[in-house]
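Quick one - first record:
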Amino acid sequence: MNSEEITLRKAEIDDKNVIWGIIQQSIERRRQDGSTQWQDGYPNEETVESDIAKGFGYVLTINGEIAVFAALILNDEPAYSSIEGKWLSDGEFVVVHRVAVDEKFAGKGMVKKLFDHIEGFTRSHGIQSIKVDTNYDNIAMLKILESKGYSYCGEVFLAGGVRKAFEKIII
């Protein structure tokens, strides 16, 4: 296990098909779990292309193989400006969206590792906090956020539904 090289890097256009495959697996997993999240045609292939083109797309690789995709967006989530509740801070923040794990790596703590790397990225860029939202029925993500010390801040309205919003102060 210790010989694994885990890195977080910007996604490149050559990664698009692999990333889209991972997102399709996640969409199907959410469906099988009975979740409404990601069941309405979003995210889609254009979402992936857009994330990569805008520089939002990041991949967590294990020995060079893509294990997890996430979109990391700086200071820009219009839905977060109106929260039913209160954010912990009003400084600069990184938004984490569209987290998807390759099923080959599922159940191995990869999303926790992803969040460790995102925290390092946030700290190294001198950004105050990380904000993230998830569906009420995304139990796995809710447990991860709790275990990583994220605070529940309230509700945001996003992608046609109410989402639970969390924040963690990094610096």
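second record:
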Amino acid sequence: MAITPVKDMVMAAKAAITSLSTEQAAAEVAAGRAVFVDIRDVRELERDGRLPGAIHAPRGMLEFWVDPASPYHKEALATDKRLVLVCAGAWRSALATKTLQDMGMDNVAEMEGGFSAWKAEGRPVD
């Protein structure tokens, strides 16, 4: 049985979502129009650091945390601001952004290059 390669899934997701450059994402957050949502695993946060002020919503819980009907709902994610999803390299964030769009959210985007690009550009890390 053949499966769809994850790279193909990521490329399809990226064709259907909004991707912001690190500069665009930082500007939206600084202007108060967006919040960063870091979907990396807690071990990645501990090892590599995190974006200052980012909400941590692990990828495995994201859909449950954004759904107001879920017993796991997190109020921090119930906002009119744009949620800018961030992972290590913008693959998980692309798939997660597409999933949230499929759930009916229109205030969601991903950050191109992910945390790796952010850090490589010398941007602040906690």
